[in-house]
Inverse folding.
């Protein structure tokens, strides 16, 4: 099976300026994802899609291919990343004549993943009869128990009212949070559909300590602490 990895990294992060190349435990954030993807033997190529020459230079330094600079209209705050996925796949087809058998997206913002998490996602995809594999982790809130929405009159109600009384979170239906650890998708699915849940989706569970999605300075601090307190992650 021909597998290509993409890391999509915009240069215009507003929550944490320069986020994708900000140093985390001694190296740029994006370097963690590049090195993890390069460590998966079945992945043939690791490419970075970015609109930033600075990110591109760092990505090349750590071993990724950066064969193009992403157009600005695909790198705005409101640009759906799904369209950047399509742009990357279009490049692969135009430059190589065909799509890979699988696209694995390895977001730069989940540096605490393990190489084995990527392997498990690919194994789940290779079982067949699936359009995309996502990663999930245990949810801290449940729409059946302790998540509410506000009514027009200012009162609140559960997001999903259960059929019967639920007095403990453990009694509510089991739900998960989607993580940014990895996505494995059929290229034809990405090119013809408009989102994750437009087709057949399966998931791989990742422990919460490996599922942190870095979006704020606090997230960086938490990740730094976890990496420095876990020697085999350094």
């Amino acid at each position: 099976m021909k597998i290509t990895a993409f890391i999509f990294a915009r240069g215009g992060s507003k929550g944490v300026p320069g986020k994708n190349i900000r140093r985390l435990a001694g190296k740029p954030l994006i370097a963690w994802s590049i090195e993890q993807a390069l460590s998966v033997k079945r992945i043939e190529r690791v490419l970075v899609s970015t609109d930033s020459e600075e990110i591109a230079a760092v990505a090349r330094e750590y071993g990724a291919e950066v064969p193009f600079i992403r157009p600005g209209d695909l790198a705005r705050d409101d640009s759906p990343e799904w369209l950047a996925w399509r742009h990357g796949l279009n490049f692969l087809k135009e430059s190589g004549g065909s799509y890979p058998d699988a696209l694995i997206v390895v977001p730069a913002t989940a540096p605490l993943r393990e190489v084995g998490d990527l392997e498990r996602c690919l194994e789940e995809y290779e079982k067949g009869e699936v359009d995309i594999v996502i990663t999930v982790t245990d949810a801290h809130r449940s729409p059946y128990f302790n998540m509410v929405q506000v009514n027009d009159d200012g009162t609140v109600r559960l997001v999903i009212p259960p059929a019967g009384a639920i007095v403990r979170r453990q009694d509510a239906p089991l739900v998960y949070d989607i993580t940014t650890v990895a996505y494995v998708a059929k290229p034809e699915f990405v090119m013809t559909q408009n989102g994750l849940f437009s087709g057949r989706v399966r998931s791989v569970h990742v422990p919460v300590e490996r599922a942190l999605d870095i979006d704020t300075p606090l997230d960086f601090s938490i990740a730094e602490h976890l990496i420095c307190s876990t020697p085999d992650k350094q």
About this structure: The helical segments are 29-38, 53-61, 81-96, 115-126, 187-192, 217-228.
